[in-house]
Amino acid sequence: MHSKSPSIHGYVCPEQGSKFERYTKCMRLTAKSQLLLLLILRELRLKRLLADGRARNAQSRETKVSAYADEELVEAFRKHADAIGRSMSCCASELIEKELEERWLDAALSQTVNP
After folding, report:
1. Residues 94 and 49 sit within 8 Å (Cβ to Cβ)
2. Distance CA 92, CA 65 (A)
3. pTM of the entire structure?
4. Which of 14, 27, 66, 104 gives 20 to 30 Å between its CA and that of 41?
5. Which H or E element spans position 71?
């Protein structure tokens, strides 16, 4: 279904992949790709990733999480990753890892808005 859509892939260890899947469902999203896309959009606005990135752990990173977007967004993310000397895949993986720790979306949705 998504084979022709521009995409961004992140690879995480199976345990993180399972946690990301559960977190996605907890946030009432129907697909991990939706959550990764939100994280990518947030990153393009806030530019929190650093050139050195996170130290990769020794666990196997065989679980793929993909985000499907229009060409313009994929190109913007590619330019951002290039600017910090990293691959899009490495950046996407780090965004997933950071969200599992920080739970930004959960916190953002839990905030009460005062009129």
Report:
1. yes
2. 9
3. 0.87
4. 14
5. helix 71-83
